[in-house]
Amino acid sequence: MFVVLCKSLLPRNVESGGTIVRRSFIITTTILALAASTSARADDLKVALIYGKTGPLEAYAKQTETGLQMGFEYATKGTMTLDGRKIVVITKDDQGKPDLSKAALAEAYQDDKADIAIGTTSSAAALAILPVAEENKKILIVEPAVADQITGEKWNRYIFRTARNSSQDAISNAVAIGKQGVTVATLAQDYAFGRDGVAAFKEALAKTGATLAAEEYAPTSTTDFTAVGQRLFDALKDKPGRKIIWVIWAGAGNPLAKLQDMDPKRYGIELSTGGNILPALAAYKGLPGMEGATYYFYDIPKNPVNDWLVAEHQKRFNAPPDFFTAGGFAAAMSVVAAVTKAKSTDTEKLITAMEGLEFDTPKGKMVFRKEDHQALQSMYHFKVKVDPNVAWAVLEPVRELKIEDMDVPVKNKR
Hints:
Elements: H1 2-8, H2 18-42, E1 45-51, H3 58-75, E2 81-82, E3 85-93, H4 98-110, E4 116-119, H5 123-136, E5 139-142, E6 159-161, H6 166-177, E7 182-189, H7 192-206, E8 211-218, H8 226-236, E9 242-248, H9 255-261, E10 269-273, H10 278-281, E11 291-294, H11 304-317, H12 323-342, H13 347-354, E12 358-361, E13 364-368, E14 375-376, E15 379-385, E16 394-401
Parallel strand pairs: 1-3, 1-4, 4-5, 5-6, 7-8, 7-9, 9-10
Antiparallel strand pairs: 2-3, 11-15, 12-13, 13-14, 15-16
Helix pairs in contact: 3-12, 4-5, 6-7, 12-13
C-alpha cells in the first residue's frame, strides 16, 4: 500500500529511471517524517478539561483551568512531562449546558483520544456526562461539581472526584453551626446542587442536636429574595435559642446580602453559609463574626504545596489563589499520582491504582475512597473577620475538620 501511495504521487509523464527513483525517495522520506511527527503527537498524555468557560459559572471554570495548569507544573517540577510523555491539556467549553457537555466529552474521548478527562463546572452538566465516561470506558475526574448524585446513585466505576461533594459541605457546616438548642432554616437553589446539599445538611444536622424548621428553594436566576426571606423569618422568629438561616448558593444572585438588607437581626436571626470565591467573599464583609465551613481559603492550609501555590499565584496574577484554583490543582495532582502509580494510562490499570490512592494537594492529603471514588479531604470551620485593607472578608480558621472528623456516607449502590 505504501509503494502504491508513492507511485500515485508521481507525475504520469515521468519516464522510468533515476528521476523516478529520486522522486520516490523524496516522497518516501517525507511520508516517513510525517509519520514520525504523528507518532510523537500520539505519545502525548492528553488530558481533556470540560468546563463552563462561558455562562453563569465562568469564574469557577477559569479558576479550575488555572489551578490545573499550575498543578501539573508543580507535580512535574516544571517539565510538564510524565513518564516521558508531554502533558497536553485539551479544553472544551460546555457553557454549563448538559447536552453540550455530553458532546464535548464524547469528542474528547473519541476524536481527541484523551487519556483522562476532568470536569465539569455545573452539577447538572456533570450528571449528564457520567454515562459518556462509562460508554467510552475512560476515566472522568469530576472537578468542581459537587452534587451527591455524582458519586451516589448516578455513579459508575469510571468516575472519580477530587471536588468535595454536597455531603462534605453539609456535614462540615452542620458541625460548625449545629448544636443542641439551635434552630436552622435553609435557602438553596432549586436544582441538584442545592437539593442534594440540603438533603445532606439535614441528615448531618440531625446528629448535632439542632432542629431544622424550614426549607426554601429558589430558581438559580432569582434576584428578589423578599418573599422567600419573609417565609424564612416567619419560620424562625418565634423559636427560642439561637436561630440561623443557612444558605447554599452558587453563581449570581447574592442572597446573603439581600437577606441581610431585610434586617434578620430584629428577630435575633443570624445568617450562615459555606465558603466561596474571593469576589463573593466581599459580600461577607457585611457579616462579621458569621460562622460556617469552607472547602478552601488560601491562608488556612499550612503545607508546602499550598505555600508554593499561594506564592506563585501571587507572583503571576497579583492575587492569591481562589476556591476553585485549589480544586483544579488537586485534580492535576491526582492525575500525576495515578499515572505514576499505574505506570500506564490504561483505564483498568488506572482504576486499580486510583482506588484508595493518597495524593497531596494544596489542602493536604486527599484519598480516593474505594467504594465510590470520592476524594476524602479536610474542610475548615471559619469565622468571618473584616480587615479594611483586604477587599474580601477574611475567613479565620476555627478548626480543621479532618477526614476522620466527618462521617461522609457512601451513597452509591456498588
